[in-house]
Amino acid sequence: MTRSRRRRTRRRGLTAALTAILTAVPALWFAAPAAQADPAPHTPAAHRSADTGPAVRHDTSPTLRSMAAHAHHGHHGKKVQDDDPGEQRLPHPPASPLPDPVVQSSPGGPSAPSTGTNFEGIGAGNYSITGVPPDPNAAVGAGQIVETVNTAYAVYSKSGATVLAPTDTSTLWSGFGGSCQTTNDGDAVVRWDTLASRWVVTQFANVSSASGPYYECVAVSTGTDATGSYYRYSFQYADFPDYPKLSVWPDAYYVTYNMFTASGSFLDAEACALNRSAMLTGAAAGQQCFTTSSSYGGLLGADLDGSTAPPSGEPELMTGLGTTSTTLAYWKFHTDWTTPANSSFSGPTSLTVASYTTACGSSGTCIPQSGTSQQLDSLSDRLMFRLAYRNFGDHESLVVNHAVTAGSSVGVRWYELRMSGGNPTVYQQGTYAPDSTYRWMGSIAEDKAGNIALGYSQSSSSAHPSSRYTGRLAGDTLGTMTQGEVTAITGGGSQTSYSRWGDYTSMAVDPTDDCTFWYTNEYIPANGNFNWHTRLASFTLPNCGSTASNDFSVSVSPASASVAAGSPATTTVSTAVTSGSAQSVSLSASGLPSGATASFTPSTVTAGGSSTLTVGTSSSTPAGTYNITVTGTGASATHTATFTLTVTSGGGGGITNGGFETGSLTGWTSTGTTSVVNSGAHSGTYAARVGGTSPTNGDSSIAQTFTAPSGTSTLGFFYNVTCPDTLTYDWATATLKDNTTGTTTTVLAKTCVSSSGWIQKTASVTAGHSYTLTLISHDDNYSGDATYTRYDDVTLS
Q1: Residues of the signal sequence (predicted)?
Q2: Is the N or C terminus of the chain more exposed, i.e. has fewer CB atoms within 10 Å?
Q3: CB 201 within 8 A of CB 27
């Protein structure tokens, strides 16, 4: 399934129907107070949209479980074949002339929120994937979790059991009629209405039309069971309502859009209020819509968490990026259902924040990935879902985030806003960028204690995109994420042909305790394009709740390792007391590949202690990347951590110890000065160093003779040369001799640079042939310019 921007690319050149264009002309204009609004000299700040009006269809559905029983489990569209044009950039501020003044350049303390339940969501393993990105988001209800991706939904228990398998989202509108039933166009969002204990699901429809009309399909559950019946609605739009974002407020369900012409030209942002009270009873319902000027896009509406409503009559707050590098913009949406003419949409008003530069320059695309030159889109031209609101009684708080430039990489700028005199003010802000890894695609929320959790994607040139989260406690130093960083799932691959990633993720709060966070994001298990998976992970931050019970955390270090089939991998499993007293924790592992075993030494620890996990593989263990779940079970709680194991060259023959994770040169023969080092590895803990940090004389090398296993065609390795001299005297090089044919290939031509960084080289191999790979570093023994080369991750694929 393609996302909307790619659909628009296919429609470019088509002319929208004149009537569709004319209906976008405003019926009524509302200007913001001149003293507060951002400059818009030729365009009024906001106007009532012609999309205002009643739902064009509504009904009550059969139960979702009965409709799903007859539904197609997997999208029926064609796989995307066109090129990837990327995301059309929305209006966004120019770059700041100053560096980010609120960067958090070091990680939080040693205490980290331990992952509770952690399970697979919708993805290539259980649904037919036909496009990117997946749009992963989830909502948590009284007893269930509902996840939606671009074109599918699923229902789970809170233990991760599947209640309803992944199914086309259009199933919700089976028998409804119109485009909501006949198309499955995506951009789905799900929320839990905490005040009414209902599910709300949205998806747009008919977006491939060259002339419209277009639709937003909305379903509100009749009760707490996500598999039960729904009140269903279809709202109509003259222009293309892209990137819909749903928020819950007492007087309405609010949805924001980026509006485009059918040919793909950006128009403005549109905000619509849907009659919540009518929709909760299945009655006829309408919407009231307003648009901004063309200077703004990517608005988010305040989305209620917790059971305490905002003060009576408080308008819905909406925010977006400002027009300068030191501002956000906000609007107030007041909805009057009795006298709609009294409804208003005031703004934009500027809110001054610390200076920032939206990530990745003019294109928005610069996120690196391991093993590919394909970069990912940061979507830095908008605030990221959600604008999470909570009323604490003594103050009202909202949190939101977006991707910004942080030195030479990308970090997550986050804000806590508090209402004062009816207007938002900045209470605290920070940019989470504790190292050079790129972090983006964030989602943020607060628990009932005022603790903040932040989830995001993470990637770099030496790491595949992964899902991570961190947090801070209510009383911690302002502007910092003080908790350690946790990896919910480590990606085993990169997206090799498309820039579109995520589009949004979601941090939700469990309404049953108002303490447990659930984070939903995507990852890829192996290099590819239409093989994404999603992951749902829960965790709590300390001191949420009236009393502190005994609890602990579980973590692994290193979090990943690469071994050849037949070799073992080890990691340290650490536990820590997070509240109360220490308790006995029993350790176990699941998710092992075939032919592998796991053992813990010791198998039971007292919280605060550690154990060594040894994963043994056999010669029959298939090559691949495996997420092994390490579970710690105590008397009061159970927590998990993920250890990612990459097995290379399974099935006989192949490279031995290609990642050097044995901590030695086992499987290799060496000449000259060679060693294994435990710093600066390309992946895992270890790398081979050929040559020395002091001058050496002539060639140093490591070599291995192997047979290319059946099904392999490519040898690859990474090198990182440190050569302060010139190519005349010093160099790195590598050769591959085919012992079967007697031919020798230079895989790495002689190279000498002062610091190359990690670079991958590949060569073709023929299955069944015997080869000798020789990795060389040459130094002329001249004082002061020692040359050496690190090698890592030698693989066959």
Answers
A1: 1-37
A2: C
A3: no
- Contacts (Cβ under 8 Å, ≥6 apart) of 353: 326, 327, 328, 415, 426, 429
Angle at 508 between CA 502 and CA 509, to 5 degrees: 165
Residues 629 and 691 in one domain: no
**Three-state SS at 65:** helix
- Cβ–Cβ under 8 Å, residues 377 and 359: no
Largest CA distance in the chain: 89
pLDDT tens digits, one per residue of 360-385: 999 999 999 999 999 999 999 999 99
Distance between CA 387 and CA 633 in Å, rounded? 35
Whether residues 499 and 584 share a domain: the answer is no
How many Å apart are CA 491 and CA 517, to the nearest integer?
21
pLDDT score, position 546: 53
The three-state (H, E, C) secondary structure of 262-310, written as one string: CCCCEEEEEEEEECHHHHCCCCCCEEEEEEECCCCCCCEEEEECCCCCC
Using only C-alpha atoms, what is the Rg of the chain?
A: 28
Q: Does residue 85 lie in a domain region?
A: no
Over range 561-577, report the average pLDDT: 87
Average confidence score pLDDT of the chain: 89
Name the 3-class secondary structure at 20: helix
- Structure tokens, 748: 């790495």
Same domain? For 609 and 707 the reply is no
Q: Does residue 540 sit in the same domain as residue 563? A: no
676 and 779 housed in the same domain:
yes
Q: Are residues 533 and 589 in the same domain?
A: no
Q: How many CB atoms lie within 10 A of CB 329?
A: 24
- Which CATH number belongs to the domain containing residue 773 in this structure? 2.60.120.260
Co-location of 524 and 627 in the same domain: no
pLDDT value of position 138: 98
546, 568, 586: which is the final residue of a domain? Answer: 546
**Are 559 and 524 found together in one domain?**
no
Burial class of residue 629 (count of CB atoms within 10 Å of its CB; 0-12, 13-18, 19+): middle
> Residue 763 in 3-state DSSP?
strand
Domain boundaries, position 712: 669-796
Predicted local confidence at residue 199, as pLDDT: 98
Count Cβ atoms below 10 Å from residue 751 Cβ, excluding itself.
Answer: 17
CA angle 340, 342, 343 (to 5 degrees): 70
**Number of domains the chain is built from:** 3
Residue that is last in its domain, among 490, 514, 546: 546
pLDDT at 495: 97
Q: What is the CATH number of the domain that holds 221?
A: 2.130.10.10
